[in-house]
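Q: Convert this sequence to structure tokens.
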Amino acid sequence: MPAVRALDLWQPIAASGHPVTFWQELPPHEIGTVTDVVVLLKQLHFLPKPDLPLGELDPFVRLVERIDAASTTSDDDRQWLSSRLEDLKRQWASRPKGLPECVVHGDAWVGNVARTEAGPVLMDFERASFGPPEWDLVSTAVKLTTTGAVSAEEYAAFCETYGVDVTEWEGYELLAGARELRMTTYAAQHAASRPEWQREAQYRIDCLRGRAGAPPWRWKGIM
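A:
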């Protein structure tokens, strides 16, 4: 499938104590679209499981560290985030069955797709693993139900292309909750060193805690 490719070299190498890898340079490109995301996911999810030591999906990886690093967040809010994390972990352990598990990207959004003249290319496989494909689909669904960044028309086209509407699955609220927590703790962690992010981080926390009305909320993008 169209994806970033590592160069055929002996790698990684060590440089100043860090592992370094080398990749084929992409041609001129721009950020992908919701349609690009679903087209690539449909290809990825139907590939056979590779003969690689691919780990199992962990939707909560690094969240404890993010909460601990959110030094500009109040103690009360950090305690709530920690409690929310533990509650979601318990639900994940007994999550309902869905589509057959497969290779998942782990962070499937338009920012991880490069749109080239030859077509879209999937990149950033840091979170690639084996698990429920719904996790990849939820990344777009929450932009409809949670953040309002995707229109109803865009989402309907997304579902038609893939053939499934993940919001109708009984496990949707669990996976959406995990994705919302990831987005919120990401903002809270980096707000500690980026004052301009503090208002958005607090707003996201307020939304999750029921202080900002009903979703969809208008969360601003953080880069």
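The chain has a mean pLDDT of 96.
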